[in-house]
Design the sequence.
């Protein structure tokens, strides 16, 4: 019920939702046309967040005095409890868990025994459990994967978590939270290297009389925060953040309203997340994270501990690092046209990579793709079929020299 109420509130703020698609028929519209069909009415399935709140909102959110709020309620959460929870996660994913304390967190990757990627996850350590934030449509897969490795004498409890996820993104995120009494008089966001407030560290705060887990980092390489909210409270929290008022009964900002004198978050949709994801280079399951690639090829070095010892996939990752065996790397791409994901990249007629994501622009497109290490990196000129492209740097991922 809370999700449906949130969708109704978002509709008053100018949200566009995906139109439910019937079973394919011979006379049906092409897949691309059906995928872009939208409606202003809340969907029958309230689990689906809005696609967009209009073309102007993303620009407003990323201005120096702006911030945006993205509904990530389609992302999944697992809760891992029991005395062995940190040891268990330490052994099942790429990052180091056993040294983490309550209030701390990290990104980690779940991989197969041959180090092929399943999902990029974020972990938040609480006093009695660990919350694992997972990509859309990955919760059941990772639940089943982890459940395979819980043995009778392990003190580990695994269950799905009942949380809604929001991302607050943009330069004015702190000003908004400060105005709501959440961050006091703090006015600047710390950088990734700030030792006092590292990424993924978190605390329980109150927004509109609701308890919220507020974590450093927006989920992208942009200033901001991740919020985990109980579904019963998500409407209140969304309203407080988009009006800038600590009063949960405050009036929601409409599609034409500005309230420029009050710090508030501009509502954003999943299409805006996709734009920011591709611009920054966050890899996504079924695109950049598949069983064709490993975390080092995806540039997720910050998620891998090379000192912690044995875990699933460790032998392969250690060998790749020791012997400089990373044969392809994830890069940005700027196209002079609009290729399809999956298009092969060539240079002088020789295959050098593959396009994984594409974001069409008014002129050309940008995207993500894997390039063979020996072929080169930033500045490399390639072909995506008949379309010329240039390899560009990314901020979310890294590739050591």
Sequence:
């Amino acid at each position: 019920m809370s999700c449906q109420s949130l969708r109704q509130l978002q509709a008053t703020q100018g949200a566009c939702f995906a139109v439910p698609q019937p079973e394919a028929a011979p006379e049906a519209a092409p897949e691309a046309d059906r995928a872009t069909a939208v409606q202003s009415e809340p969907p029958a399935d309230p689990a689906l967040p809005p696609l967009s709140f209009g073309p102007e909102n993303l620009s407003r959110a990323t201005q120096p005095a702006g911030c945006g709020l993205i509904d990530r309620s389609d992302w999944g959460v697992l809760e891992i409890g029991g005395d062995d929870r940190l040891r268990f996660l330490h052994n099942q994913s790429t990052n180091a868990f056993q040294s983490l304390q309550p209030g701390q967190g990290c990104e980690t990757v779940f991989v197969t025994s041959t180090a092929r990627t399943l999902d990029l996850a974020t972990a938040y350590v609480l006093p009695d459990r660990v919350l694992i934030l997972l990509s859309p449509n990955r919760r059941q897969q990772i639940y089943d994967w982890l459940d395979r490795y819980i043995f009778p004498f392990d003190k580990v409890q695994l269950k799905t978590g009942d949380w809604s996820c929001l991302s607050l993104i943009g330069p004015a995120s702190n000003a908004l939270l400060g105005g709501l009494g959440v961050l006091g008089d703090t006015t600047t966001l710390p950088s990734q290297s700030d030792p006092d407030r590292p990424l993924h560290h978190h605390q329980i705060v109150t927004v509109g009389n609701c308890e919220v887990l507020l974590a450093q980092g927006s989920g992208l390489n942009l200033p901001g925060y991740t919020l985990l909210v109980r579904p019963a409270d998500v409407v209140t929290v969304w309203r407080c953040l988009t009006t800038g008022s600590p009063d949960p009964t405050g009036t929601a900002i409409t599609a034409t309203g500005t309230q420029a004198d009050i710090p508030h978050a501009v509502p954003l949709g999943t299409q805006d997340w996709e734009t920011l994801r591709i611009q920054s280079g966050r890899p996504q399951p079924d695109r950049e994270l598949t069983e064709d690639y490993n975390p080092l090829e995806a540039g997720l070095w910050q998620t891998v501990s090379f000192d912690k010892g044995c875990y699933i996939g460790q032998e392969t990752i250690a060998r790749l690092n020791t012997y400089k065996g990373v044969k392809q790397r994830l890069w940005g791409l700027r196209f002079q046209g609009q290729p399809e994901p999956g298009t092969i990249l060539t240079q002088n007629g020789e295959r050098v990579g593959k396009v994984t994501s594409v974001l069409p622009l008014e002129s050309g497109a940008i995207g993500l793709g894997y390039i063979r290490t020996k072929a080169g990196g930033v500045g490399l000129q390639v072909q995506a079929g008949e379309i010329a492209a240039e390899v560009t740097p990314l901020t979310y991922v890294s590739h050591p020299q």
In short: The two ends are 51 Å apart (CA to CA). The CA atoms of residues 39 and 398 lie 39 Å apart. The longest strand covers residues 350-360.
